[in-house]
Specification:
Radius of gyration: 16 Å
Structural class: mainly beta
CATH topology: Nucleoside Triphosphate Pyrophosphohydrolase
Number of strands: 10
Number of domains: 1
Helix content: 10-25%
Largest sheet: 5 strands, mixed
Number of helices: 1
Oligomer: single chain
Order of helices and strands: EEEEEEEEHEE
CATH class: Alpha Beta
Distance between the termini: 48 Å
Length: 112
Amino acid sequence: MGDKTLISLSGMNLKEDSFKRPYFELEEFQGVVMLAKENDSLLLIEQYRGPVNSTVWQLPGGGVKKGEDLEQAVRREFLEETGYTCGSVHFLGTLQPASWRTNEITHVFFYG
């Protein structure tokens, strides 16, 4: 028996697996983050996040737009969130930060 769709919204489905555990299936599921080093420090941003009703510190990053390659996306997000541009970036790998809750994939880059 397949997973059950509970709600479908623009670009997102809330589903339930066979054990009745909910998860999100995103249409636009790719994201990027930049691990950026300046001198002996890592560059983090502070943002309010509604799901946890709190301000959190995190790596700069965000979603990948249609037609955008991963490096373009991470450079754009880095500029938008920090105001900085960067030189050569290095792809470190891919992770699934919450595979029990969503199909989101995060691509990690390094600058420093």
